[in-house]
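input
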Amino acid sequence: MLEPVEGFIDEMLRENAQAPRKQRDTIDRIVQRLAAEQGFEQASYSTVRAGRARGSICRAGRGAHHSYPV
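output
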């Protein structure tokens, strides 16, 4: 379901990896940005979370131990 915007999400996560911990996007914020910046309103918290859990969305070089909420 997230295939059309996986590249955008990957880029957000790469940017987040460089940001201070308190400034990183949560899953809720990723869903909001998808709607606002990409016009993609089919995503929900659960679909973005599931995409991260399956590994179909980049983990921004953090490996299995990342500091993003999942």
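quick obs: Residues 3-54 form one domain.
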